[in-house]
Amino acid sequence: LASKLPQVGTSIFTVMSQLAQQHGAINLSQGFPDFNCPPELIDRVSYYLQQGYNQYAPMAGVLPLREQISLKTELLYGSKPDPETEITITSGATEALYAALAAILHPHDEVIVLEPAYDSYVPAILLNGGRPVFVPLQVPSFTIDWNLVKAAITPRTRAIMLNSPHNPSGAILKSQDLQILAEITRDTAILVISDEVYEHMVYDNQPHQSMLTLPELASRSFVISSFGKTYHATGWKVAYCVAPPALTIEFRKVHQYLTFSTITPVQYALADFLTNRDHYLNLPDFYQRKRDLFCQLLQDTRFTFQPSTGTYFQLVSYENITSEKDQDFARRLTTDIGVAAIPISVFYQQQTDHGLLRFCFAKNEETLRAAAQKLQNL
Ligand code: PMP
Ligand code: GLN
């Protein structure tokens, strides 16, 4: 069989989590919390399971959940998407990203991808006949040089993929970035696929710059978020896509035949739980405390870093420790020191090694302290 994805191997998240398990290392690699989701939310899921909400959900998602998303969007970003025509529930943000690309790409269409990029983007573009056009983020700030983006635009450019807060760097977009994006896509057919799964993890009182805050950008965007991140339940794989009606129609055509619909009892439980705004409104504080603790602990190591501005990831440079390649160092850190991290070079198509690692700080205090103690031995 001729592979359609000859370059693709096992995801770094699987590789590093397995290595951590084999060596009994503390796993700060793959992004997931080591604490449970809110007990009230689990109670709601059990309730709906027991009440028999166990058959297919409507293709677009259960209406109460779409209504709650609409209200949340209005509260946070000032625009109120129509639950009927502009919101679709998907089985994870991974599905939503794929469905958006599959809905819009024709053979040889180009998609601008900022690197380092989350690992699912490029395979999803390639499988849909598209061509990724890479633009590097600026190092070490991981901000966007919009002149490079402008220079990458051609008549074949169908979409730009953005991710803020950004995995793996923890960088966030500023309002000026949105203004420039609006300008350079104005009067073009270029669409925006905006991966905002970490929308509630932005620190130091900065606002999250959602595409939904600017009507002009919202009118040409697929905005994707994930309940897995927000509710400490990455295993549930429930997410959503907000897009204007014409884009949602095309998006749902793909969703309808990719998964058709998403797990029913969890959708109802989330709809109930979203009526309580405290959880997501408190999330920046909750994670900022973890970031601050982790950064304080890292001060006693030889890693250097700028505190993360968003996501639950902290990027560190190990230039004072070793000149090893990042993948070799990440491996040795796991097997010999007992802490697993993600090397950043895997988020680039071409070999690009800045000597950086990503740690996930969505962990209990004891886990972060135990990891830091090991890292202090380097
Ligand atoms: N985008 C980014 C930037 C992510 O970090 C993740 C999760 N790690 C996803 C998408 C996928 O989210 P989900 O688990 O909801 O598919
Ligand atoms: N998004 C998670 C991360 O960045 C991993 C998800 C996965 O394992 N596919 O660590």
Automatic annotation (TrEMBL):
GO cellular component assignments: cytoplasm
EC category: transferase
One Gene Ontology term of the molecular function aspect: pyridoxal phosphate binding
EC number: 2.6.1.88
Residue ranges of domain Aminotransferase class I/classII large in the record: 26-375
Keyword Membrane: no
InterPro entries in the record: Aminotransferase_I/II_large (IPR004839), Kynurenine-oxoglutarate_AT (IPR051326), PyrdxlP-dep_Trfase (IPR015424), PyrdxlP-dep_Trfase_major (IPR015421), PyrdxlP-dep_Trfase_small (IPR015422)
Keywords associated with the record: Aminotransferase, Pyridoxal phosphate, Transferase
Keyword presence, Phosphoprotein: no
Signal peptide: none
Pfam families: Aminotran_1_2
Cofactor annotation: pyridoxal 5'-phosphate
PANTHER family: FI04487P
Family that this chain belongs to: Belongs to the class-I pyridoxal-phosphate-dependent aminotransferase family.
Protein name (database record): Methionine aminotransferase
Lineage: Bacteria, Pseudomonadati, Bacteroidota, Cytophagia, Cytophagales
